[in-house]
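haha ok so turns out i had the wrong file open the whole time. this is the CORRECT one, sorry everyone. sequence first:
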Amino acid sequence: MTKGLPCFATFYSRHVFGICFGLFFSPLCPAAQRMTRKSRLFPRITAPATVSTPRIVGTAGGCLMLAVALLTACTTPAVAPPEASVAAPVTAAPATIATPPPALQVIAPVPPVQVAPDPVAPAKEPPLVELPEYAKRGKRLPANGNAPGRAVLAYCKGFELEKDAQSYFKRLQRTKRLPTDDEVAERGRIVGQAQTVQQVVERDWALRRDSNRTAPQRCKVLGGSVDGATALVVFEADFNGRRQRGIATVLLNDKSWRVRDHGDWAQVK
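then structure:
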């Protein structure tokens, strides 16, 4: 009984038009008349006493169409109501943890291989200068002469003179040793003529050039000996226009070495 209800509901809802069409054109079909009598939706239909041939043909066609409609309605499956779609649960993707980049490996620089230098032979000291017999007393001095040797170099430097008067003037001007106004005036009274600072300096340069010919210049200490407060220093210098070797006597006076004299000159071979 429950299986016939969907079929009849489908027939009643979808093929009402077919039933009405069949009943209209086939009022003499017994099956249709019985169905319409039992149905509460249609009034009773009474067939006429006589039916013509065209009416019989129309009645047969209506019955055929009614049978097809009944078969179609009963064989059509019921349409199931659409099921409510259940949304799939949303699964949150696992959070991706950023992986830090690998730490750079710093390779310590390899220290260069230190190769031991070849052993260097110690510098040979120059041989000690030959001393005269009177200079062999006391302690030998090295080649530079120590403090007595420095005193000899300072003594020689005091005699050195520039090659021209202009260079000599510039040195006096740089060291602030130019003659004063009083000295220039005194020189003018001596020569009986007014003098300038430039003229006085040029005259001094000429006099020193002539006198320095007998003074040692451009000296080089070679050694010597020291005995108490007296030192004998052997040195070379330009003397009397030639390169010569001589001996200077240096005395210690008030903790300072000073040249007393020089001599025993001999030409350098």
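Residues 232 and 249 are 5 Å apart (CA to CA).
again sry for the mixup
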